[in-house]
Specification:
The chain has 108 residues and is α+β, with helices and mostly antiparallel strands. The protein has three helices and six strands, in the order E-E-E-H-H-H-E-E-E.
Length: 108
């Protein structure tokens, strides 16, 4: 198969997908987050995959470093994303890894 002017071999090893960094526990969502995801036409799995592999979204460097620390020390983990319709959504995994919640910042 030829793509963009170079050859791609079918038997070349593909890069490994990122590995989960922590357990998500039970995944739940607030009504507002469900509505926002539906209105944006986005699946929660897209954001969940980013969250669990360490793509913390739109956090500053200090908050990203705090999340990295939290993964190693069983503390709460928060990611922040903007949906395609401009709505901000948070994904929070509890410190005991019992649950991960999708919510709007206004629902916190």
């Amino acid at each position: 198969m030829i793509r963009y002017g170079h050859m791609e071999r079918e038997n070349e090893p593909q890069p490994e997908p990122p590995k989960p960094l922590f357990s998500l526990g039970q995944v739940v969502s607030t009504p507002g987050a469900i509505e926002a995801l539906e209105q944006a036409g986005q699946e929660p799995l897209e954001l969940l995959s980013r969250h669990v592999t360490g793509d913390w979204g739109e956090l500053d460097d200090e908050d990203k470093a705090q999340n990295d620390f939290s993964v190693k020390n069983d503390l709460r983990i928060l990611s922040a994303y903007t949906l395609e319709n401009g709505v901000k959504i948070w994904v929070i995994t509890e410190n005991d890894r019992s649950a991960t919640t999708f919510l709007l910042p206004s629902e916190y």
